[in-house]
Task: structure prediction
Amino acid sequence: MKLRFWSSLAFGLSTALSAQVSLPRILSSHMVVQRDLPVHVWGKAAPGESVSVRFRGESRKTNAGPLGRWSLYLAPGAAGGPFEMTVESKHPGNAVAQTITLDDVLVGDVWVASGQSNMEFPMSDAATASQDIPKAFIPNLRLFVVQRQAVDYPQDDVESDGWNASTPNSVGNFSAVAWYFAREIGAREHVPVGIINSSWGGTPAEAWTRMGALAADAALMPVFASWDKWAARESDSVFLRKEKPHLIAEAKAQGRPAPEFPWLPQLESQSPALLYNGMIAPLTPFPIRGVIWYQGEGNTDSDRAPLYGRLFRAMIEDWRRQWGIGDFPFLFVQIANYKAGSIEDWPTLRQQQFESLELRNTGMAVTVDIGDPENIHPTDKLDVGLRLSYWARAISYGENVEVSGPLFRQAVPEGSSIRVWFDHSGKLVIKNGDLVSFEVAGIDGKFVPATAAIENNTVVVSSPSVTEPVYVRYGWSDNPQCNLFNGAGLPASPFTSAR
Result:
């Protein structure tokens, strides 16, 4: 961003009459603005100042309001660039003008990438880093990183170093999932792509949800009880470390396990709405194409997982309301396979994510086949980004492409067996031997392992210990062995028919 000043008055002119125009950090040189939508430009200036914006041969004017805020829209346009945008302000009765010039502005598609550590996971740690980082020079792919900021009330700007073009130097610390997704979209659609990474490891969905959206649904009140537990545990942990260090030393001296609390993320990152306030709210004036989301591990506690679907859907719907550009695509990753702790409920969380597909223009990338049982951060981020891109290509760009592996549609009892139908089945395929990870239950709801076979592109499931099966489920564990795929090579989502 270049800042230029012109003055025709003496140096001694009162600074009280000087122009004071400024822009939020998301509006800066090298940015991508969303094609086919009005271009929103906003910022601050001295109250009453006249502000004009020129872009692609068009000029618009407005005045800063009593609080010094101003906002205007320019006409939408097709993808292209680079262009120059100039913002000029002038105080009434003052010949001093200030001009901000933004260089190298592209018009294309803008996507927001958000969530927790698997979205934050950097390219430098990805399994494919050594082959892809050296080839990361993509001038029309632009990256923007929102720095961590938890705040008690919605902000009007994010913390960031601004936009950068994709290069081997700029991608190393950038989200691997987001970069692979954006690279694929740019290559397929042949338009500039801007990807905004706003993520924070170890965070729950409620931290990314606006307080008003949480408060509007009484069923979400347990969210605040969960936060209170986190606060109490953090308080105990801090007290032990700071006030009672001798207890730790005594335990070690006596050969006993030291009293300790498990590692906890920063309390501020767990607090309802605080990340929305600092890292999402300032972005909502900036038109986008859609959102990709990788989060869920932070809500797998057994008391939180059953509520995730309602919370997640409330968050999606509210983000769409706050952006005010319609039901834009919201594409998310179902959490992968992992050996979790006994107090966590990963199967229920996955089911809650699956049921969120009921919302319009949502898509879910199934990753139960590419996780790492020993590492909550699997390093295969290429396939995650590609699977998200399939949904984008279908929902946002209208391509005829298979977006998913088999997704449970319905189950119908047939005597001593139960037959399962799937959407996105294509031609059902078994990888590596017989079908595994299917279970059935009778009216009592007690599930037992079952045998399963493909028949007429459905799956027939049975067990000799359940003579009249009523329910069926698949992949119902934290680290399931799943081998049901479709002809496109995409895995079936875990599911249960008992809702």
